[in-house]
Amino acid sequence: MNLSLGPLLYYWSRDDVLAFYDEAKRWPVARVYLGESVCSRRHLLRLPDWLELAEHLAAAGKEVVLSSQTLIESESDLKTLRRIVGDGRFRVEANEWGAVRLLSEAGVPFVAGPTLNVYNPETLDVLAGLGATRWLPPVEMSRDALASLLQRAPASMETEVFAYGKLPLAYSARCFTARHYNLPKDDCQFRCLDHPDGLPLSTREGEPFLTLNGIQTQSAGVYNLIGELPALRKLGIASLRLSPQSRHMGRVAEAFQAALAGDTRAADTLTHILPGPPVDGYWHGRAGLEYGMERSC
Amino acid sequence: MPAEFERSTTIALDLICPAGSLVSLKAAIDHGADAVYMGFRDNTNARAFPGLNFDEAQAAEGLRYAHDRGRKVLLALNTYPQADTWSRWTGAVDRAAKLGMDAVILADAGLMRYAVKQHPQLRLHLSVQGSATSYEAVNFYREHFGIQRAVLPRVLSLPQVENVVKHTDVEIELFGFGGLCVMVEGRCLLSSYCTGESPNSAGVCSPAKAVQWTETPAGLESRLNGVLLDRYGKNEKAGYPTLCKGRFNVGGETYYAIEEPTSLNTLDLLPDMLKIGVAAIKIEGRQRSPAYVTQVTKVWRAAIDAVKKNADAFKPTPAWQAELNKLSEGQSHTLGAYHRPWK
């Protein structure tokens, strides 16, 4: 079992992005997902910049995967998608079925991303037939549901599980960050740049609940499966996805790597640097915001 | 790969109405629905509410009623089957074929493959829960499973819808009226994050069994699995606590941070939809009453007939709008994403 650094879901300055991935070269992650998968208006790095970054990370020994956009709305979104598929140097993570169509037509092996909604082995088998070599279950899938699915998974299909970070929960055509600032989405003034870990949303009694990240809505709670490594091993999971946050990401990767190597105290080192309350309800087949047997927040 | 098929040139703005029960089905047919859509009485559809939907005998009766009057019945099987419960969904597909459903509305690719293989004559529609927002995605399902219609998520603007229609042979169905999902359908897990049950996996959003209402000194509170969704002042009207329509705190401000409790109403856009080549308009609301179905169907039948007669002169009457506003959530409506400034 090894580690993947998931795609950057937030919008950071160009310098911050480059510095982040420069550091990531030294982190114990086998694989790095690159590219803008949330909002097509974000442009501080364009596809050629991401591809250049991809070359640097590949030269540093990382396997690079390009993540495609999750919500495709316009012809220009499709144009970018076709360029990603056509580049051919790196594997691609398909995050909607239009990308699956283009990748299978091109005969390019791909990663089936978590928003393709693979809930059963038959759908996974459809994707395997089209060229998927790796897949991620929807983030809401429980350990038990995953175990049942994997009993009949296609041979040689690698499974990657979202194991750390705020959970990407929903996508909209509407931008909730722009809405917060009373700006239309088309003139959002790129306010996402002011919120490197998203904009926290809490209930009227102050409970942290969700995180607004442009057109994406995430959990406020931080999903963390570092304590579940034995169960993940037993399921034959190939990789754990760590979702980027603006601070301490290297320490997160090191803690997971130490835990994989058998260090039983590694989990404790994470408790002080979680960017929100811990949650693991989904893994145990309960409401996502729950943690252990207790409500987290 | 399935055989080629042709887009029907006669279908334009078919009115597709919700049937949560046999009474609603008959109401929709009697008042001019071209087709109704229904679900079986379990979690194989995205309105798996207690007391709603059809057993096999009722479905057969509904089909008879519709077919006797030259109308169609579509069956929603639009949740995602799990490994352990796969046979419930395939069983539902088999039953749909046996009953003679005019189409099944599916979201899951694996289930589509099953349907094509076992029942090649069964017409397939791609559910809105399939989250297809581009013609590349729609054409994927067409090429691999021969779908004949796709219901688009309520996130595209009309020019974007037009672009999809131009690049596919698949009939395009749009939501015209009713509850407004602000998220891409099939790509929203907010409900399971809060309650453990989502439309994808359990066929429900913000399930009633997780709702609590409490009268407090600060006002009437609505909670979903304990999470405070809203608190209402004395003169405020409380609506069903759908998670995305609560008031929350962001950056020190309390407001409808995701979406106001409003409904979608696209009556004004009918001439554009006709021009673009939209095949069908769907009315949301299998969970609503037969009286609701009656009133909405009446208005939309009249409006669609009027726009087909003379699109250039079409203007929704104040009476239609007043009638629909009365039925809308929060007594207000929006053109949603079809209308660009909303975004």
Description:
The complex is a heterodimer of chains A (297) and B (343). Chain A has 297 residues and is α/β, with parallel strands linked by helices. Chain A has 10 helices and 14 strands. In chain A, helix 3 packs parallel to helix 4. The longest helix of chain A has 13 residues. Chain B is α/β, with parallel strands linked by helices and 343 residues long. Chain B folds into 2 domains: 247 residues, TIM Barrel; 55 residues, no CATH class. Classes of the chains: A alpha/beta (297), B alpha/beta (343). At the A-B interface, helix 3, helix 4, helix 5, helix 6 and strand 7 of A face helix 4, helix 5, strand 8, helix 7 and strand 11 of B. Strand 7 of chain A pairs antiparallel with strand 8 of chain B.
In short, what is this structure?
Chain A is α/β, with parallel strands linked by helices and 297 residues long. Chain A has helices spanning 14-24, 47-59, 75-87, 97-106, 121-130, 143-151, 176-180, 229-234, 249-260, 266-271, and strands spanning 2-5, 31-34, 63-67, 91-94, 110-112, 132-135, 158-172, 199-202, 208-213, 216-224, 239-242, 278-279, 290-291, 294-295.
Topology at a glance:
The complex is a heterodimer of chains A (297) and B (343).
Chain A: E1 2-5, H1 14-24, E2 31-34, H2 47-59, E3 63-67, H3 75-87, E4 91-94, H4 97-106, E5 110-112, H5 121-130, E6 132-135, H6 143-151, E7 158-172, H7 176-180, E8 199-202, E9 208-213, E10 216-224, H8 229-234, E11 239-242, H9 249-260, H10 266-271, E12 278-279, E13 290-291, E14 294-295
Parallel strand pairs in A: 1-2, 1-11, 2-3, 3-4, 4-5, 5-6, 6-7, 7-11, 10-12
Antiparallel strand pairs in A: 7-10, 8-9, 9-10, 13-14
Helix pairs in contact in A: 3-4
Chain B: E1 14-18, H1 22-30, E2 35-38, H2 56-68, E3 72-77, H3 86-99, E4 103-106, H4 109-118, E5 124-126, H5 135-145, E6 149-151, H6 158-166, E7 171-179, E8 183-188, H7 190-195, H8 199-202, E9 211-216, E10 219-224, E11 227-232, E12 248-250, E13 253-255, E14 263-265, H9 270-276, E15 280-283, H10 290-309, H11 318-327, E16 333-334
Parallel strand pairs in B: 1-2, 1-15, 2-3, 3-4, 4-5, 5-6, 6-7, 7-15, 14-16
Antiparallel strand pairs in B: 7-14, 9-10, 10-11, 12-13
Helix pairs in contact in B: 1-2, 1-10, 3-4, 10-11
